[in-house]
Amino acid sequence: MENVETNKHAVTLKEYGKNIQRLANHIVGIEDRDKRTQSAFALVELVKQLNPHMKTENDQKIWDDIHIMSGFALDVDGPYPKPEEDLLFKKPQRVGYPKGEIKFKHYGRNIEKLIEKAVEIEDDEEQETAIIYIGQLMRSFHSTWNRDNFDDAIIIDDIKTLSKGKLHIDLEKVREMGLFETNTRRDFKLPSETERSSSGGGRKKFNGGDRRRNGGHSKKRR
Fold this sequence. Notes:
By secondary structure, the chain is an all-alpha fold. The chain is built from 8 helices and no strands.
């Protein structure tokens, strides 16, 4: 590594500017360890005053940056360990792509996950509630891709395909009662693992809030 003195005019972290860089270099040259440590603490406070947005951040970032500006030559009794120099040159880990292809890209992977959860529901009525909610979502997604050629039968066929034939709902019932109409949508959520384990007999529920089923419709309160 180059000596700090030979590189004292270089600005390592431009967001701090030349003056902070010079102070960091100066502190490295202080012979007395206690004075050097006090000066480093003072520099951290100065950085926070000059950069008010950093007052809410963890001081460790500022200390790490001062070590970087000093070329890792700063030897003080700081509150945090000196960062490893090798970390600056490590390549970031690759972000893995989701495994498995999405069957219907216009629905997205979240619909597939919802269907997987709906398959696990044991109560028939609750499972139908889940299917209706998923069908409403799928219809809204499908309509953005193809507004002209649309039928509820398409959604039901896609649900059967994605669930591998495990989810069923009567087409005539869906059409007659408009179950997949988005203007009848209610807020549903899949139960968390805690909710499932605490429900009676391990039964998995698809929570429909205060929804009272009346052939698939909610009664409006007046």
